[in-house]
Structure formats: C-alpha cells, structure tokens
Amino acid sequence: MQPGLWLVLAWQVAALSALHQPPKSMMVLTNQMVKLSCEMKIYTKSTPIYWLRQLQGPTKDSHFEFLVSWNPTKGIVYGEGMTAEKLTVSSDTAQPILNLTSVKPEDSGIYFCMIVGSPELIFGKGIKLIVADVLPTTAQPTKKTILKKKPCRVSNPMAQKTCGLVTLSLLVAGILVLLVSLSVTIHLHCLQRKARIRFMKQ
C-alpha cells in the first residue's frame, strides 16, 4: 500500500474518534436542566465548536437545526430562535458543554457536536434526548397466590377411632341391605316359577 493512502486512512480513523458524546441517550423531566458534553480528543480549546439538533431519526428527509456555536475569536453565536436564557455553551479544555435550561418535550431530539476538519466536517455520534412530563415506570409482575390444600387431621385418637367405626358400620349395613334385597328377589322368583308349573299341570 502506498504511503499516501496510509496517511488518508490514519486521518479518517482519527476523525471518527475525535469527538465522543457520552451517553448515547438520556431521559429527563420537563423543566429540568440538561448538560450535554462533547469530548475532543485531538483538538485544543481554541477549536471552534458547533452544536446541532436533529428533531427526528436519521432519514433522507431529516435535517440539522443549528443551535449555537463557540469560536475563540467571535465568541458565542446563537441560531434562529435561540437565546442565552435557553442554552449556553461552556468550552473547557477538551470537553465543551452545552447547557439546556428548563427543557420542554419539544426540545427532544438528537444533539450533535461538530467541528470543522480539513477538508471535511467532523460530527460526534449524537446524544438522544427525551423530555417527558412523567418518567415511565417498569411494571412489577404480579405474583399469583397458590393456596395449598391441607389434609384433614384429627388430633384426638378417640375421635379418629370412632370415625372409623362409624364408616365400617355403614359399610356393613349397606352389604346387609343388598343381601336382604337379593334374598327377597330370589324368593319371589321361586314362587312365580312354582305357580307357573302348577298352572301348566291343570
């Protein structure tokens, strides 16, 4: 590979890692103050910094809205409709910060920091900001109460013995009733047979 191509690739890798925006996303309540940082790894305090906002996800129809810029010679320049009461920029060494005051749901979007490279623009990966009136809560799963059936226990041995005798007595009585019913049925059958035989002999 030619030395010139190595230099181009090295510059592209450095450009991609030049700006770092932690965290990737954050959710805050309405009217809170938000601080968005942009770590500049290979640039100095004298580097101009720009802050942009994308109101929707990256698509072919999405566009960037210029918010504010900081320049060591020109100072702070605000975009259309932006004021110092709404947002401010502090440029610390290697970490410019965008301060948003009293945020509203309409301030939700993806915020990018940007610097002017040579010859291209270098963007951070962006911070997705979500402003909500109420933060969502995670519903806790409800636990089903399982009722365990307890076996019937008789603590008194005498009562348990009496219960057993009653059950046995009922069983014996049932058997006796069946035997009596069977005997009566057989006796009636025999009488009917004898009567039929006498009738046939006459």
UniProtKB/TrEMBL annotation:
- Pfam families the record matches: V-set
Give the GO biological process terms.
adaptive immune response; regulation of immune response
| Residue ranges of every copy of the Ig-like domain listed in the record | 3-115
Q: Please list every transmembrane segment annotated in the UniProt record, as residue ranges.
A: 165-191
Q: Which residues form the signal peptide?
A: 1-18
Q: Which PROSITE patterns match?
A: IG_LIKE (PS50835)
Record InterPro entries: CD8B (IPR042414), Ig-like_dom (IPR007110), Ig-like_dom_sf (IPR036179), Ig-like_fold (IPR013783), Ig_sub (IPR003599), Ig_V-set (IPR013106)
Q: Where in the cell is it found?
A: Membrane
Q: Which GO terms describe its molecular function?
A: coreceptor activity; MHC class I protein binding
Keyword Transcription regulation listed? The answer is no
Q: How does it sit in the membrane?
A: Single-pass type I membrane protein
Q: Which GO terms describe its cellular component?
A: external side of plasma membrane; receptor complex
The protein's predominant localisation is: membrane
What keywords were assigned to this record? Adaptive immunity, Disulfide bond, Glycoprotein, Immunity, Immunoglobulin domain, Membrane, Signal, Transmembrane, Transmembrane helix
Summarize subunit and interaction data from the UniProt record for this chain: Forms disulfide-linked heterodimers with CD8A at the cell surface. Interacts with CD3D; this interaction couples TCR-CD3 with CD8. Interacts with LCK.
The record, for PANTHER family, names: T-CELL SURFACE GLYCOPROTEIN CD8 BETA CHAIN, T-CELL SURFACE GLYCOPROTEIN CD8 BETA CHAIN-RELATED
This one is known as: T-cell surface glycoprotein CD8 beta chain
State the species of origin.
Answer: Nannospalax galili (Northern Israeli blind subterranean mole rat)
* Top-level taxonomy: Eukaryota, Metazoa, Chordata, Craniata, Vertebrata
